[in-house]
Amino acid sequence: MARMATDTVQQIKDKLSIVDVVSQYVKLERAGTSMRARCPFHAERTPSFHVSPERGTYHCFGCNVGGDIFSFVETIEGLDFKGALKVLAEKAGVPLVYSKGKSKDDDALGRLFELLEAATIFYTSRITDDAKKYLRSRGVEEETMQAFRIGWASDAWSECADYLRAKKYTEREILDAGLAKKNERGGLTDKFRNRIMFPIADSAGRIVGFSGRIFPSTSSGQVASSESGFTPPKYMNSPETPLYHKSRILYGYDRAKQAIRKHNFSVLVEGQMDLIASHQAGWSNTVAVSGTAFTPEHASMLKRMSENLVLALDADQAGIKAAGRAARAALQGGLNVKVARLPSGSDPADLIQKQGVDVWRAAIRDSKDIITFLLDVLEEHAKGADGFRRSVEIVVLPFLVDVASPIAREQYVREIAERLKVSERAVSEALANVPRVPGEQIGEVARTKSEKPEGSNRIKQAYAILLWQRAHPRSSLDLDAYESELIQMIGKDSFATLETLSRLEKESLRFSAEMLHGKARSLAAEVRVLLDAIALEHLRDELAQIAAALKVAEDKQDAKEIERLTAESKLLTGRIAKHPSSV
Q1: Which structural domain, as residue segments, surrounds residue 484?
Q2: For residue 260, which of 285, 365, 416, 516 is within the disulfide window of CB 3.0 to 4.6 Å?
Q3: Mean pLDDT, the chain, as a whole number?
Q4: What is the Cα–Cα distance from 325 to 405, expressed in whole angstroms?
Q5: What is the total count of domains within the chain?
Q6: Cβ-Cβ contacts under 8 Å for 367 (sequence gap 6 or more)
Q7: Do 30 and 137 lie in a common domain?
Q8: pLDDT grade for 220, boundaries at 50, 70 and 90
Q9: What percent of the chain has pLDDT over 70?
Q10: How far is residue 237's CA from residue 191's CA, in Å, rounded to a whole number?
């Protein structure tokens, strides 16, 4: 994989400001010359995440992360650098241009991305009329098949692997991409056979894996068992690979991001067919879990786009349990969770196909907060008041523990009390006895650490001003004179040590200087006061050292040393008394 040309990166930076990019994920507010927000990378009560429009950088003083638009998109989207480039280039309308040169690690991952793209083209080019007929019978339109790049894997043993080998990909690469496995003879056998193929993309839209649905092969439309009596699973997903991490990938997320922001909520369904049906029905803010449970990482991904989530999982017993697990993960991730109640035994795809788009739209519109939903379901099936009370204590209260907002929690306590016809105090006492799941305190720990201010001193403050003004296009200081005076005060070695600070530490210092001095009427005057204070500190340190040495000389009764140190002490005391910063 060739490296991105430097001029392409600069074109993207010229067209997209740091505020343009960051404001799509977090709400920024003005704070002097910079912008600030609550950090999207860790839990916090007070904003410690700052954006500098002037320098095109961001820094969080809580979790100490920082960088430019590329590192921000990398971190918040869970992408590598090339993935972030792809996302930003599309936003900026800049074509990607590559220059020669290779990085070994980048090349290996780049080869896997290219391989998976080749496999996608292979599967889509071989989709059969029978496969299309089946998809149409499930309500999938031809245009949708093409948009989602749905393909087909035949029942041949190694057709895909052979195709990829002919494209000059190695066996190791085919195995690493999760498309084949070693057979008993040492050759490769395709992992996906006789399946309708759904490519799975990362948030930049690059293919990272596949989900294959078994293709009905009998006249009744049922999956045929093998001679051994084994019935293959309906869905098979790619294994964990260097590119595909199930806990951090949601099917359709790359397509749903903008719609989630626009509608300010996301819809979570269980599989590919449900997602495609929902998108086709106009709900392009829908995402799906694929081969794994909904995780806190998934919740974090969705929260970057919107804090609101509607669960629309299957209405059978397994689907209700999955909704419960997903709801707890979502609540712990700080999402506001609602549940769309589907008719018993229905999944979204069946509901849309059999009862129409309007019924699906109504199910989303009438979705209820998770606590209210649970109370409704339990009350319907409860055997008397005592049975309902026990069900609420066992089922509902653990969910209430996970609700992040204390105001929402209090409202739910009131609702539960009214339903049970008991006092709010009784509900609160019962809630206090519900054990918290290990790991729920992570946000609190992160917040406590993040809100602990880091110690700083005047020398670092002076150096921070130097860094800030170096990066300023119109510095109001004589930087050469300022740097020279600072070196003279603290020494060349101390200054050299400061210059070896990491890029992240320097960025933190720049932000601190901008926050402290960004509104200064006269930066030169403030700098003069700061340098005078540093000089006074040095004089006082020298005096303290002389006082300690004088005590040692007195203990030794060294008259000559006592006389010398006393004279120095008087001289320093006089200089301190006359110093402009002395009080």
Answers
A1: 458-578
A2: 285
A3: 84
A4: 19
A5: 4
A6: 310, 311, 312, 338, 339, 340, 341, 373
A7: no
A8: very low
A9: 87
A10: 9
Q: What is the pLDDT of residues 147-162, one digit of tens each?
A: 999 999 999 999 999 9
The SS3 call for residue 220 is coil
Please tell me whether residues 75 and 132 are part of one structural domain: no
Of the CA atoms within 13 Å of residue 294, those in its CB half-sphere come to: 30
Report the candidate in 172, 182, 247, 167 with the shortest Cα–Cα distance to residue 209: 247
pLDDT above 70 for 441: no
Q: Which two tokens stand for residue 37?
A: 């927000």
507 has which bridge partners?
A: none
Contact in structure between 511 and 34 (CB atoms under 8 Å): yes
Q: Which amino acid is located at 320 in the chain?
A: I
Upper half-sphere CA count for residue 512 (Cβ side, 13 Å): 23
Confidence (pTM):
0.70
pLDDT tens for each residue of 323-354: 788 999 999 888 999 999 888 778 899 999 99
Distance CA 465, CA 439 (A): 40
Question: What is the DSSP pairing of strand 308-311 with strand 57-60?
Answer: unpaired
Beta-carbon contacts of 517 under 8 Å, excluding residues fewer than 6 positions away, are 465, 468, 523, 526
The answer to whether 269 and 278 are in contact (CB under 8 A) is yes
Asked if the structure places residue 251 within a domain, the reply is no
Residue type for position 228: S
Q: Are residues 110 and 75 in the same domain?
A: no
Residues 78 and 132 reside in one and the same domain = no
56 in a structural domain: yes
Q: Letter for the amino acid at 217?
A: S
Given a contact cutoff of 8 angstroms between Cβ atoms, the answer to whether 393 and 365 are in contact is no
> Does residue 226 have a pLDDT over 70?
no
CA atoms within 13 A on the CB side of 56: 13
Candidates 271, 234, 279, 277; CA nearest to 250 is 271
Phi and psi dihedrals of 313, rounded to 5?
A: -90, 170
- Please report the pLDDT score of residue 98 as a whole number: 57
In-domain check, residue 77: yes
- The first and second tokens of residue 127, run together, are 């989709």
C-alpha radius of gyration, the chain, whole number? 32
CA 261 vs. chain centroid, Å, equals: 15
> Are 120 and 185 within one domain?
yes
pLDDT > 90? residue 263? yes
Dihedral sign, Cα of residue 106, residue 108, residue 111, residue 112: negative
Question: How many Å is the maximal CA-CA distance in the chain?
Answer: 113
Selected residue with higher pLDDT from 222 and 105: 105
Signed CA dihedral, 575, 578, 580, 583: sign only: positive
CB 276 within 8 A of CB 144: yes
> 124 and 95 in one domain?
no
pLDDT for position 426 = 94
| Same domain, yes or no: 471 and 394 | no
Q: Which of 244, 272, 289 is the last residue of a domain?
A: 244
* Other residues' Cβ atoms within 10 Å of the Cβ of residue 127: 19
